[in-house]
Amino acid sequence: MTIQIGSLTLKSRVYVPPMAGVTDIVFRDVVRQVDPDCLLATEMVSSRALMNRPESRLMDIAAGEHPIGIQIFGHEPDVMAQAAQMAESKGADFVDINMGCPVPKITKGKDGCALMREPALAGEIVRTVRQAVSIPLTVKFRLGWDDDSRNAIEFGLMIEEAGANAVTVHGRTRQQLYSGKADWGFIAKVKRALSIPVFGNGDVFEPEDAVRLLEVTGCDGVAVARGTLGNPWLIKRITDLLEKGVHGEPPDEIDKLIAAYRHTIGLIRYKGVRVGVNESRRHLTHYTKGITYSAPFRARLTQIASAGAAAEILAELAEQAGGLEGRERFLLAVEQDYLEYGEHPGEGDADHKGRIQSPVNVVAFPPLAIPVDRVYENAHAPAHYAGHERE
Predict the structure, then answer these.
(1) Which residues are CB-neighbours of 212 under 8 A, at least 6 positions away?
(2) Residue 358 is inside which H or E element, if any?
(3) Distance between CA 297 and CA 312 in Å, rounded?
(4) Angle 319-323-326 (CA atoms, 0-180°, nearest 5)?
(5) Among the options 38, 101, 113, 219, which is catalytic?
(6) Would the CA dihedral through 116, 120, 125, 126 be positive or negative?
(7) Residue among 289, 374, 31, 225 at smallest CA distance from 301
(8) Structural domain boundaries of the chain?
(9) Which H/E stretch holds residue 388?
């Protein structure tokens, strides 16, 4: 089944929508390696901030990411139109307007979900942006501000009439934030009222959840956000279940730890050591959730200051999860990464495999130094680490 969003034809019914601090170019590369056809979007970008910093890296798009959209937020129609034009010039396949973010620092003005309290302004924004760009335009919103003002149906009709090509509806009100259960039944009411494609969003953490959401709501597609944290494989498993009727098992614990390490290295290569390490901590905690007795390791991962520290802690956790074989398997992946990219992450072929091109000039990045006597105790050490021990 394909989905038509304006001029954009989608092969997949699965969408990974914007998540602030999560869906950067590195995270999206991880997802894209798992599922080549799902719909992607950047983190949300402030339209007002873009007027002062038009070079914002939040809008960076890699060559292999399509189909992908850039999400913008704000409440000034003309400024939003300029931001949308910048997104189009960046190569976005569509522009998404955020009218659903519930976070107080966004809604305290008229941004995000606050626009659901000012539908006339929201409509003006959509109309102005629609006239400013030639690519498809989508909008994300919630059920309403609170339970006493659930206006998603009327809001959706207004958004469609103003020129939006598709919408994503999160099944909670702004007041709920992310608490309670998503109301898929109300999303279904929005879907029945609109003629443009609707993506349902909320409480999808397993492939079967996606199927149930689509059955209950009748939506064209499913938007999967928090369920992908530390679990990018969920997207492919949902896709397989929808298309083939079956899905594979999630990766084992060692593969999850390898993915966690590679995600960390990807962030460091792209954003530099300080920012990359800081941002990797939240991802590391997500990847390690669910692994038996991982809590003490997770606490240590929130304090890491280098890629080497992350590798060492993950190696210890790999041994606990899979014995010496698990530890050696994890460290073999570290060794392979070293051989593939070189000693200094961020240097060398910046457009490796046609994916992420890092704008960061990483200087004097220390090699991953994992003490051989700790990492490979009673196990065979690959030549690289053994060589470091002898030097």
Answers:
(1) 184
(2) none
(3) 10
(4) 70
(5) 101
(6) positive
(7) 289
(8) 3-244, 253-390
(9) helix 383-390
The tokens describing 166, both together, are 């598709």
How large is the angle between the packed helices 77-89 and 119-132, nearest 10 degrees? 40
Structure tokens given for 141: 């919103």
Quote the pTM value: 0.86
Contact 162, 123 (CB under 8 A): yes
113 is catalytic: no
Token pair in block for residue 331: 């460290």
Q: Which residues of 120-144 are buried (b: 16+ CB within 10 A; e: fewer)?
A: eebbbbbbbbbebbebbbbbbbbbb
pLDDT in tens, 305-350: 999 999 999 999 999 999 999 999 999 999 988 777 654 444 333 3
Place of tokens 């602030």: 20
Four-way CATH pick for 3-244: 3.30.70.260, 2.40.160.40, 3.30.70.100, 3.20.20.70: 3.20.20.70
